Amino acid sequence: SPVIVWFRRDLRLSDQAALVEAAAKGPVVPVYVLDDETAKHRAMGGASRWWLHHSLESLGAGLEEKGSRLILRRGRCEDVLPALAKEVGASEVHALRHYEPWWRNAEKAVGKALTLHLHHGNYLAPPGSVTTGAGQPYKIFTPFWRALHERLPPPDPLYRPHTIAAPESWPESEALDDWGLLPTRPDWAGGLRDFWTPGEEGAKARLKTFAEKASRYEGQRNLPARNGTSFLSPHLHFGEISPAQVWHATSSAGGSVATFLSEIGWRDYAQNVILQYPDYGGTSAREGFDDFPWRSGGQAQEDLEAWQQGRTGYPIVDAGMRELWHTGWMHNRVRMITASFLIKHLLIDWREGEKWFWDTLVDADYASNAVNWQWNAGSGVDSNMFVRIMAPLSQSEKFDAAGYIRQWVPELADLPAGEIHDPSPMARPKGYPQRLIEHRAGRERALGAWEQFKGE
Ligand code: FAD
C-alpha cells in the first residue's frame, strides 16, 4: 500500500529523509496541507504565503519530473491526513519533525490516528538532543554552540530518490491558484518577485554564489550596502535546502567561514529555545517584562505606523523598514538597529515588532524571530541588556550604510556623505520627516522607564 509523505517546512527533494524512506518502501503519495486552523494566530503572514505559493509550484514540478505529484489539501492536518490515508489505502505517514508548538501538537494528534514516522533533517542536530553533561538543555548560546560543534559535521546529505513510484490511482488535489496565497490588489509582491526565486533550484543557486565568498563573511556581514551574507534564510526556513547541505558546501571555504557556520548554529539554538519555552514568541522570558511601562495607543500607535512604513526620520531605520517592505528581507545589522529603535527609542512592546516582522518577512520563523526580538529587548534567556541602546547615527556611520540609505530612501540620495546618516533639519529634503524623537531624549525616556520597571 502507498506511503504518505507529509511536507511542511521541508519543501525539497534532496536530503529529505521522509521522502527517501517512503520511496524505498513503495508507492508514495506526497501531500501538502494548508492548515491555518492548527497554527491559529501563527498562520503564515502575507510575505510567507507569497513564498509558499511559489515554493509549492517548484516542489510540484520537481515531483512531476520524477513521475510523481504533489497533492494539495486544506484543513486541519489531524483531519486531512487520516482521511487521505483512508482514501488511498495508506497505512503510514512519513514527515520531518518540526518544533513549533502547534506542529508538535499536530504531530501528536496525527500520531494517534495513523502510524507517523518522524525524521530528522531540518537542523544541524536534532533539537533537544544537545544537552549539558547533566542532561539539561542549554539556555545560553555560547555553551550550546560549543556542545553542538563537537557533534559536527552533520551527516552527509541524502541524495534525492532516483524514482518515486506512483500509487495505482491518484487522489484528487486542490488547485494551488484557488488557495489565494498571492496578493491580489494592491499587488505588493513586485519587489519580492525581482529579488527571489523560491524553490530548491533557487536555493541551490544562492548557495553556490555564497560558497564562493564564504571565506570573506566576517569582514562583510555587517555592512548592509554589500551583499556579504548568504540570503539563504527563506530557503532554510521553508526547508528548500537543508543546513547539512549548506554546511558541506561551505565549511571548507577557509577564512572566516566559521563565523558563518555559527550563525547556522543560532538557527539550531532558536529551536532549542522554543522547545523549552513554547510561548517564546508571545511571552517574555524575563519575569514581569510583559508589564513593562510600554507606550501604546494614540501617539504610540502613530509612531508604530511610522516605523512600519519607514518614516521615522532616522535614515538607517527607514532604509531597513523599506527594504523589508519591498523585498521581504532585511539585513541582520539593520534588523537589530530597527528593533532596538522600536523597543527603546519608541518604547513600544517588542511583540508589536515581532508581529510586523512575522507578516512581512519571507524568512519569518517562529523561533528565530522570537529569539532575536527577545535578545534585542533584553527579555530573553540569552540576551542583550535593555540598557544597551543602539545609537542609529553611529551605527549607520560605523557600518558604512550611506549606499544602503541611498538605495532605499531615494529622497535622500543626493545628500552628501556628511549629511546622509543624520541630515540636519535644514538639509532634510521636503517630504522626508523630522525625527520622531531625538536620540538623546529617546535614550533618557527608555532609561527612565527601565528604572520605573525595576522599582516596581
Ligand atoms: P547569513 O548571515 O548568511 O546567515 C546564514 C543563516 O544563518 C541564515 O540564513 C539564518 O538561517 C541563520 N541565521 C543568521 N543569523 C541568525 C540569527 N541571529 N538567528 C537565527 N538564525 C540566524 N532570521 C530568520 O531566519 N527568521 C526570522 O524571522 C528572523 N527574525 C529576526 C528578527 C530580528 C529582530 C533580528 C535582529 C534578526 C532576525 N533573524 C531572523 C536573524 C537574521 O537577521 C537572519 O537570519 C539573516 O539576516 C538572514 O540573512 P542571510 O540568510 O543572508 O544570513
Helices and strands, with pairings:
Layout lengths: L2 E5 L9 H9 L2 E7 L1 H4 L6 H20 L5 E4 L2 H12 L3 E5 L4 H13 L1 E5 L21 H10 L39 H6 L4 H12 L5 H4 L12 H5 L5 H8 L6 H20 L21 H12 L5 H13 L4 H14 L4 H11 L5 H12 L14 H7 L3 H7 L8 H4 L18 H17 L1
Parallel strand pairs: 1-2, 1-4, 2-3, 4-5
Helix pairs in contact: 4-5, 6-12, 12-17, 14-15, 14-19, 15-17, 16-17
The chain binds flavin-adenine dinucleotide.
Keywords: Chromophore, FAD, Flavoprotein
Protein name: Deoxyribodipyrimidine photo-lyase
Pfam families: DNA_photolyase, FAD_binding_7
Question: What is this entry, summarized?
Answer:
Belongs to the DNA photolyase family. The protein has 456 residues and is mainly α.
Task: Outline the structure in words.
This protein is mostly helical and about 450 residues long. It folds into 3 domains: about 1-120, Rossmann fold (3-Layer(aba) Sandwich), CATH 3.40.50.620; about 125-155 and about 200-275, Alpha Horseshoe (Serine Threonine Protein Phosphatase 5, Tetratricopeptide repeat), CATH 1.25.40.80; about 290-450, DNA Cyclobutane Dipyrimidine Photolyase, subunit A, domain 3, CATH 1.10.579. It is about 50% helix and about 5% strand. The chain has helices spanning about 15-25, 35-40, 45-65, 75-90, 100-115, 140-150, 190-195, 200-210, 215-220, 235, 245-250, 255-275, 300-310, 315-325, 330-345, 350-360, 365-375, 390-400, 400-410, 415-420, 440-455, and strands spanning about 5, 30-35, 70-75, 90-95, 115-120. Strands 3-2-1-4-5 form a 5-stranded parallel beta sheet, sandwiched between helices. Helix 4 runs parallel beside helix 5 and helix 6 (about 140-150) crosses helix 12. It is globular and about 75 Å long. It starts with a strand and ends with a helix. The model has no long low-confidence stretch (mean pLDDT about 95). The site of flavin-adenine dinucleotide has 27 residues, from helix 10, helix 12, helix 15 and helix 17. This is Deoxyribodipyrimidine photo-lyase. Keywords: Chromophore, FAD, Flavoprotein. It holds the Pfam family DNA_photolyase. Belongs to the DNA photolyase family. Its cofactor is FAD; (6R)-5,10-methylene-5,6,7,8-tetrahydrofolate.
